[in-house]
Amino acid sequence: MKSFERECRCVDCGREYVISGVALHPGAETEGATRFRCLCGGCVEAFVPGSVNKEKLVVTPKESVPRPA
Question: Against a cut of 0.90, is the pTM above it?
């Protein structure tokens, strides 16, 4: 299994998120839209690989994601 990340944005407030998780073959399988709730209550949507366990996805506000120096 390989890890993956997707970036997405709330359609209501514009807040950005990083969605991360693991999949069998990210990039080589069908992806589907998955919806999440934003902190403002709006909708955030990301396309994730079909083999992902959606209950184990990690949704992180982008400003909280550590960036390499």
Answer: no
